[in-house]
Each structure stands twice: as structure tokens, then as C-alpha cells.
Amino acid sequence: MVGLIDCDNFFCSCERVFRPDLVRKPVVVLSNNDGCVVARSPEVKALGIKLGTPYFEVLRDFPNAGIVAFSSNYSLYGDMSARIMSILREAAPDVVQYSIDEAFLDLRGLDTEHLRSWGQELCRRVERCTGMPVSLGIAPTQTLAKAASKFAKKYPGYHKCCMIATEQQRRIALGMYPAEDVWGIGRRIARHLECYGVHTALEFADRPRAWVRSKFHVTGERTWEELNGHRAITIEPLDAVVRQTIVTSRSFPGMITDRRDLQSHIANYAARCAVKLRRQHSVCGQITVFVQSNHFRPDLEQYNAGAFHTFLTPTSASNELVGAALQILEAIFRRDIHYKRAGVMVSDITPAEGVQTDLFTYDPERTLRDNRISRTIDSINSRLGADTVVLGSQQYAERASDGRAIKFVNAIRRAMKSPDYTTQLGAFRV
Fold it and tell me: How far apart are CA 249 and CA 269, in angstroms?
């Protein structure tokens, strides 16, 4: 059997742990620059507010609903996720973290007869130790476990743990489960299925294998097998996935016309990409920079541009990536444009071991020095906090109220951000 544990309304629940006065009150968490709703409490869902709704529309349409909004607090959410995962690893034989708020549990070797009571106790333990409500689905396959977790979250009678163990339970559960909610199907394929009279997961699972393969190819066939109780999907751990493309981009709180301000943003985006490369022990062979004007302002001149640079010897050194990104920006920058968004993408990613060097331009001593500097910066920032040490080009001209330089994490609008309760000693005030 396999389990899928899913945190209930994860971002909102993280905020409520340290604000118990907000339990059973409408809470939303907003995207970068406090733009759109990215997380909703059940009370907000009941109001009909959809994910992605602009926050100004929430204020306009629900002025008296008492909705409490928070800016995204990624430090808090990441730490709360790590605490939950540590509890799961103590309880289950094997844990594969799938996302910040989900993990698959390999339950082989556990007593099947008492598995549901074990799962209920695990959910209680997580909430008791962290304050975070979670739901657990248990079934023979990952896809069925995902469906079971939805039932555990929706119906209180399961006491946070739903188990699909028998053929009868499987058919009843899939008969109640819309096809578009099945992990691996989604709305686009669901609309295709509706044309063939398939509306539920059971109707899809009862179709012949040959029909499924002819219409939805091998990925659809794997989902079909999973729904029929045969494990066909392998889940890679979140920290083991090697990304082939890494992108860091942001919309700015306002609009930028100054070259130096834009350079600082681009330098920080490139540095973030470099850190992500080193975390997965990779190097990149190409870097792309793009800039965009505000397309919501037709009264202003519109401008979208991008360009790339190819490294003859692949690299992950921060100074090389930042230097190349700034050279690209210099080539595509235009005066008198009101820039609203920019980003950096690294591609042609390969393992850092056994890099194919360029015969004419490769300098082993410089490469060794640059890599040592980058690793040293990573180590210091890991111990003392993000942006403790940065490259000079990453510094913002603007200063905070205390006179210190603005850090990258504070360069976007987060006017309603909660304190970093679990990672900063000064978050609690006596």
C-alpha cells in the first residue's frame, strides 16, 4: 500500500498556526507584489473567490467579508514543510516528498489490518506537533491514494484518513470521483473524455486498455492502470529532480525606467539561477534574459525583448552568469521604456561532473577560483541568512528605513507579510 499525505490549505494553515485568532475566519495568501490570490481558506472558497483572482477585485467585491490577506512568506512555508516531513520520516518506512505540502509514503511492511488507525494517529500527531491539519489517503497505487486523500479532506467521517483497500471500495470511490480531478487527467483531457461519454474516474477505468492507449497514448494508459489498482508511475523525490531549464522572473511593484535599477534585478535573477544550478550539481551552457513593458498600459510604448548568450564551457559560477546576463541586458535595454517584468533563464543544463571544456578559452585556475567563491557565498548565506553576501551588482540603490541596503527578498511588494516566526529570533516580541 502507498499513502499520500496532503496538508490542508497549506499556506493559509501556516499563517493560522501563529494566528489562532484567524481559525474559521476567511484568509487568503497573495502572490508576488500582493497581486493575486494563490491560497484560500475554506471560508474564502465558500464565498466563491477563485484562485488567481486579483486582490483589488477581492477588496472591491467583498468589502465587508472580513477577509484577512497575507503576502507570501516563503521562509515560513518552507520551514513548516520541513518540520512536517521530518515527522513523516520518523513514522513511515520511506517518504518521497512530492511538493511543498505533499508526500508519498511507502507503507510496505506495515500491518494492513490496522493501517487506517495508524494513518489517523499519524495525522493527529502531525497536527499536534506542528499545528498543521493534514489528510491521508491510502491505496494500492499513487493515483488511487491521491483520490483517497481528497475524500479524507472532504468528508469528516474519515477522521483525516481514507483507505481504499478492496475492489468494492475502489469502484465506489471512483464512481464518485470526477474524471477531471484524477491526477494525470486534468480539465483539457476531461473535456476530451466527455465527448466519449466519460465523466467519472470509474467510467475511464472501465474502458478497454486498447481504447485508452489509442486516444491518450502511454501517459493515459499509465493513469488507467493506476486507477485499476496496478502501480505504473514512479515518483521522483522533490530534491532528486534535475531541472533541465531554470527560470527566475518577477513583475516589479511599480514600473522601472532606470537602467541601474533594472541591472540590479537582472543580476539577482541570474545569481538565483546560479544557486539553483549548484544545488542540483549542474552547469548550464546558455543563459537568456528577457524584459517586458506593461501591456496593461496601452498609453505607454510597448516593448518586449530577449537575447541569449552561449558559454563555450558550461558553468554555474555566479559571477559568470551575472556578468553574461548584464551584457545581454546592455544589448536589449531601451531608454524611455516603462519596464514591468524581467527574467533570466538558464538552459542546456548538464551534470557538473565531467564538463566538456573549450580548448581555447578555458582557464582552469580562474574556473577553480570562481567555483570556490560561489561555494563560499552559498555556505555563508546558508548559515547567516539569504543575501548576507552578494555580488556588488546585486545591490539595490534604494535603502530600507534603517539605512541598510534593500535585499532581494524585500525588493518585491509584500506589505502584508507575516513575521518569519520559525527562522528569525526577533519575530516574536515580548
Answer: 7
